[in-house]
TrEMBL record:
Residues 95-218 form the MotA/TolQ/ExbB proton channel domain. One of its GO terms (cellular component) is plasma membrane. One of its GO terms (biological process) is protein import. Keywords: Cell membrane, Membrane, Protein transport, Transmembrane, Transmembrane helix, Transport. It comes from Nonlabens xylanidelens. Belongs to the exbB/tolQ family. Pfam families: MotA_ExbB. It is found in: Cell membrane; Membrane. It is a multi-pass membrane protein. This is Biopolymer transport protein ExbB. The chain crosses the membrane at residues 36-56, 136-161, 181-202.
Length: 231
């Protein structure tokens, strides 16, 4: 038994330095490019966290907005057919979704010309789409800006490398040039990673938003058809 405990302790002791070495190597990768490379990497890391925050916050919002009871429109139809408009509005108020809010807007305009009802629903729909797309454009901005920031680091790194070469009279060794070249490469990689993550997140949110918009349009059409039905 004591031998087993000793082997476990040895494994734990060996694993701890390995984790520390990995952490130090990651930090070393970030700081090895010098002050300019470190600043650019830090900016890209901030952009990455910001992009991930926007993505997950919007994703949860869009998912919650797409959830609605499958019998919602049937209940609305039943209330309106029986003249219970207040009950229909209360049912809409219980549902925290764009579809419910559009339906409530249409119910509040019942009695007006059909064109006015349709216009009111369209205006309310534009407002709901604006709410769904809030901050999503920032992901597109990050997707475009991150590779450019990385490319800025590339240019800075190459400038540093050529400056080192010039200061050495054209006879600098590879060790002297390595710092500038490293800055050029690591910032490019970091910029592309952040840009790819933001680009994928942006397109995924666009697809999810389009599905909610389609759901809104479908239910708005069902509501207008309900008003067109003969009494």
């Amino acid at each position: 038994m004591s031998l087993l405990f000793q082997e476990t302790a040895d494994v734990t002791t060996e694993a701890a330095p390995l984790v520390n070495e990995q952490s130090e190597s990651l930090l070393g990768l970030i700081t090895a490019g010098g002050p300019s490379g470190t600043i650019i990497i830090a900016v890209l890391i901030l952009l990455l966290f910001f992009a991930l925050y926007i993505y997950f916050e919007r994703l949860m919002k869009i998912r919650s907005s797409s959830k609605i009871d499958s019998s919602f429109m049937l209940n609305i139809k039943d209330h309106i057919s029986n003249g219970r408009l207040d009950s229909a509005k209360m049912l809409c108020a219980k549902e925290d979704s764009p579809v419910a809010r559009l339906t409530e807007k249409g119910i509040s305009r019942i009695g007006s010309p059909l064109e006015d009802i349709n216009s009111a629903i369209e205006n309310a729909g534009k407002l709901e789409v604006y709410k769904l797309e809030k901050n999503v454009s920032m992901l597109a901005t990050i997707a475009g800006a991150a590779p450019m920031i990385g490319f800025l680091g590339t240019v800075i790194g190459m400038v540093l490398a050529f400056k080192t070469l010039a200061d050495a009279g054209g006879s600098a060794d590879m060790g002297s040039l390595a710092g500038g070249i490293y800055t050029a490469m690591i910032t490019t990689v970091a910029g592309l990673i952040v840009g790819i993550v933001a680009y994928i997140g942006y397109n995924h949110l666009v697809v999810k938003t389009d599905k909610v918009v389609h759901q809104m349009e479908e239910n708005a059409s069902d509501f207008l058809d309900l008003l067109n039905e003969p009494a």
